Amino acid sequence: MSIFRFAVVQFPASNCDQDAVHAIRVLGHSADYVWHKETSLGNVDAVIIPGGFSYGDYLRTGAIARFSPVMQAVRRFAEEGGLVLGICNGFQILCEAGMLPGALIRNRSLQFRCEHVFLKTVTRDSPFTRSIPDGRLLKIPIAHGEGCYYADEPTLDRLTSNGQILWKYCDASGQTTDLANPNGSLLNIAGICNEARNVAGMMPHPERACESILGSEDGRMVFESMIATLRPAQKGATP
Amino acid sequence: MKAKIIITPKKAVLDPQGKTVQNALAHLGYTDVTAVHVGKYIEIELGPNTDPKKAREALDQACYKFLSNPIIEDYQLEIVP
After folding, report:
1. Which residues in A lie closer than 8 A to residue B72 (C-beta atoms)?
2. Taking CB atoms and an 8 Å limit, are A96 and B69 in contact across chains?
3. What's residue A234's pLDDT?
4. B12, B14, B71 ranked by CB distance to A148: nearest
5. Does the ipTM exceed 0.95?
6. Are strands A138-144 and B40-45 parallel, antiparallel or unpaired?
7. Torsions phi, psi for A208 (to 5 deg)
8. A191: which residues sit within 8 A by CB, 6+ positions away?
9. What predicted TM-score, i.e. pTM, was given to this entire model?
10. In the prediction, which pLDDT does A235 show?
11. Which residues of A touch B66 (CB under 8 A)?
């Protein structure tokens, strides 16, 4: 079995970086930290921008991290088709960087929400969802105060028609109700991808749901989707 | 010379903070308040020889690119002596 290399970017006040590295290693692949001052990612197959409070969330969540040297490298990696997954603060950073549309604002309740939620996978046609069985709901924790997804109506229409909405918050029976929406996100959006489908962001934490001792292994399916995508890509790249 | 920047959430964007402050004001008896918008104020100090016109142009860019997020916020920029 091929072992793939994941880069996990570390900003000052990232705090889910170790969880992300651990999750990738649990899945049998390689993960290394890349410090925010680095200008290169090295030879990696995929990038994870982890959760936390990069740069203290000063000004706006993700607003400062976006200008760090490593983000230029992440942008180049994405432009060349590399897989990039932003989780929680990583999602906020990718939106601020303009690599994903929209923005994440204060939760409707003004509360920091820390709990397990259910996610409905809207499309399996993405490198982040392809290994999720059809109709299978994911039980994955959230932990954020600013996870309310906002975009103007034309953007939301485009996200919908292009199939860029990957996950929506739902209840245990898969209904995307207002009650099941923990933060007020428009259209119950929990995660999206870019138009090229190689960059995704999600507020829930799949890296915290990869071992049964943590209450759920559903997060594995997100990373397994990425790994399944890398497999044929690597085969093609090898002469 | 100073730049004064006021950043407010766009009217179309949900502003739960403004709404909560409005509710609290109502509890205090300020029942005529029809809406509250909570934003940010940024003051930037500039050197004495700064050209106000150039400073405005540069800071307008900074507001658009960095100090505000145009998807969710509006800004007002003022240069004062």
Report:
1. 103, 105, 150
2. yes
3. 60
4. B14
5. no
6. unpaired
7. -95, 10
8. A91, A119, A128, A165, A166, A167, A200, A201, A202, A203, A204
9. 0.94
10. 53
11. 59, 63, 67
